[in-house]
Design a protein that fits this description.
The chain is mainly alpha-helical and about 60 residues long. It has one domain. It contains two helices and no strands. Helix 1 runs antiparallel to helix 2. The two termini are about 15 Å apart. Keywords: Membrane, Signal, Transmembrane, Transmembrane helix.
């Protein structure tokens, strides 16, 4: 259960960082690679969290 919570928190953190990077990219025109990496990492973590919830379903 602790692992699920940690993955959930990481997924939310990476999602928030991706949004911040997208805003930074829109304002400055730089940092598109970092934005893409953060979005990819957040999607992977969200997939892992959803998969773990599905496995723990009674």
């Amino acid at each position: 259960m602790q692992r699920n919570r940690a993955v959930m928190i990481l997924a939310w953190a990476f999602s928030a960082a991706a949004v911040a990077a997208a805003i930074h990219n829109a304002v400055t025109g730089t940092g598109s690679m970092e934005c893409a990496v953060l979005i990819t990492a957040s999607l992977i973590l969200q997939f892992l969290y959803a998969k773990s919830l599905k496995q723990n379903k009674p």
